[in-house]
Amino acid sequence: MSNDPLIIFDTTLRDGEQSPGASMTLEEKVRIAKMLEQLRVDVIEAGFPVASPGDFNAVKAVADVIKDSSICGLSRALDKDIEAAGEALKNAVAPRIHTFIATSPIHMREKLNMQPDDVVENAIRAVKKARQYTDDVEFSAEDAGRSEPEFLFRIVEAAINAGATTINIPDTVGYTMPHQFGDLIRQLIEQVPNSDKAIFSTHCHNDLGLAVGNSLAGVLNGARQVECTINGLGERAGNAALEEIVMAVRTRQDVFPCDTRIDTTHIVPTSRMLSRITGFPVQPNKAIVGKNAFAHESGIHQDGVLKSRETYEIMRAQDVGWSDNQIVLGKHSGRNAVKTRLKELGFEFESEVALNSAFKRFKALADKKHEVFDEDLLVIVSQTSEKEKKAIYSLVFSEVCSETGETPEAHVTIEVEGKEMNAKATGGGPVDAVFKAIESVVNSNTELKLYSVNNITSGTDSQGEVTVQLEHDGKIVYGHGAHTDIVIASAKAYIDALNKQASVNDRSHPQHNSI
Question: In which domain, by residue range, is 410 found?
Fold first, then answer.
């Protein structure tokens, strides 16, 4: 069995960000891109440059700093889109332009209002224009899963003749069954005369929970690129999860005639960073990266694993980045020990100022906790990066009085653009009181849609990790906060969400449900 390279195309920064509430700042996109580079992702789709100035600048920033991965910008089959992508990518070591147009009857008729001949003509023109900026051009047939095969054969052949080097076949609405999707990839490779001149790719959505299954069916039928996201992040039900694709192929080399170049030990740290930045927690039973992915409670399972790990574990937890270190560091640990352990986890500091800030937070936490775990360190890094950002709101002081039989009262001091403001409020509980006190200062007119608390590690001294979801004028943002005091963690999460809400730009994509 041959061992072909399987290209991993990560679209967390583009399609993943289209998940409601998952908007990221330029700095956050660069941080994630650097982690994806350490993960050894082949292609990073950094954004949709024409969508907004923020998207353009983010793609440019990622293209400027990433050296070991190709950087891709998405564009519709329009001159202005391709020109924006070309400009944003001009400093990339290995730039790729990804242009697309819809090919299903319903999309051509209802959305594009175009005839099939016109769609083919536009696709050819777009690919040729993209080739003016780079030799690495990808063409996608949007909603390929519901397109007529004969028309797909025709437009794919034309796109390859025009210069496309990668042909992406998206299951845009997650409608296709694995056997159908695999058969479609096989037919394209067999029926398109010039198919040997391009790499075929999958891009599957998870509306029916089949994104990974469809992607793998495509690989088994000749696709040699998979488009996916960390944690399966994406609009609606999400995209194919990178970690599941990579580990399925790596674990079942008896089935797959290919493998990736991914450094799997960075999977869990990357997953956690994304979760922290977006505020989307990973469900405990999520494959590969969930807390319970390698946990065993059943006595029979525990007995089997103790006798031989392979009885119930088909992968090693350490291979995907789970640490078997229990006590990592403590209050007597030095600055270099913290720096070294974080480097082992995939984090390197760009300045002494950032390292000093992280170490200061580590010491403050170590005074509260006897044992500091890897999970705590990952939170510290995220908090350090957040602290460095210029925030409109920040928590200065919080005091809550909660007594049996009495109405809880909160007193907070919030810094608003450099000016400290005090407020008091009562509520149904201590968290409710704190939120109302904060609101009396900021008057955000947001609606709290979700409030969630999880422990980061075990023990009563564990940091509590709070996630809040706020909605304002139809826009959703998530906030994250962590502290050994749940009420303070809640206040920090609420303020984090308020800062994101205040900084959200109008990111209405020209083609929102793209690819």
Answer: 391-503
